[in-house]
Amino acid sequence: MTAIRVDVATLLRAGHSDAAIARELHTAAKGVARARAALGLPKARPGKQPAATAADLFRTRVAQCDDGHLQWAGARQPGGCPVLRHAGRLHTAHRIAWTLARKRPPVGHVRAGCGRSDCVEPAHLEDAEDRARYRAIFGTALTGQTARPCSRMKESA
Ligand SMILES: [Zn+2]
After folding, report:
1. N or C: which end of the chain has fewer CB within 10 A?
2. Are 32 and 12 in contact (CB under 8 A)?
3. Span from the CA of 146 to the centroid of ligand 1 (angstroms)
4. 113 close to 125: Cβ distance less than 8 angstroms
5. Cβ contact 65:72 at 8 Å
6. Which pTM was predicted?
7. 90 CA to middle of ligand 1, Å?
8. What is the distance in A from the centroid of ligand 1 to the CA of 11?
């Protein structure tokens, strides 16, 4: 068995073509093709490559605001809920953003807690567990300030 360079294997798995990898890593395309065959990966498809992960796709659909919020510039559900489709699955942008900032999976709906329901800044998000904690500390005075969840979409863990 031949040794396969880690950087070549990484780019192959990310869906890049043999020629693009050879250009990027200053190596021979024939060697990249041999590594592709050894890994059992299909030839890269021409055209725009799909995002490797939903998080990668998320990063291409946001715009940083001057005031620290992150504006969603992608698709929305009819109710206004920011969404993106990756690998045939529909995800809420809030849930994808959550995974960028938090270590634990979200509980219940993920919403912007900053008062701007369309904000997808990971640091501004809260889930049901956060809201319960805030209620325990501050009482119900703050509950009217949070954005309502998208009622047309069920979120899954
Ligand atoms: Zn915000």
Report:
1. N
2. yes
3. 11
4. yes
5. no
6. 0.61
7. 22
8. 34
Kindly report, residue by residue over 17-49, the tens digit of the pLDDT. 999 999 999 999 999 999 999 999 998 877 777
CA 9 / ligand 1 centre spacing (Å) = 38
CA of 122 to the centre of ligand 1 (A): 8
- The ranges assigned to domains in the chain are 6-39, 54-145
Name the one residue in this structure whose structure tokens are 């300030």: 145
- Measured CA to CA, the distance from residue 150 to residue 154 in angstroms comes to 8
| Ligand 1 centroid – CA 94 distance (Å) | 11
Cα dist. 100→25, 72, 125 in Å? Answer: 29, 15, 11
The model's pLDDT over 74-121, given as tens digits with 9 standing for 90+, comes to 999 998 899 999 989 999 999 999 999 999 999 999 999 999 988 999
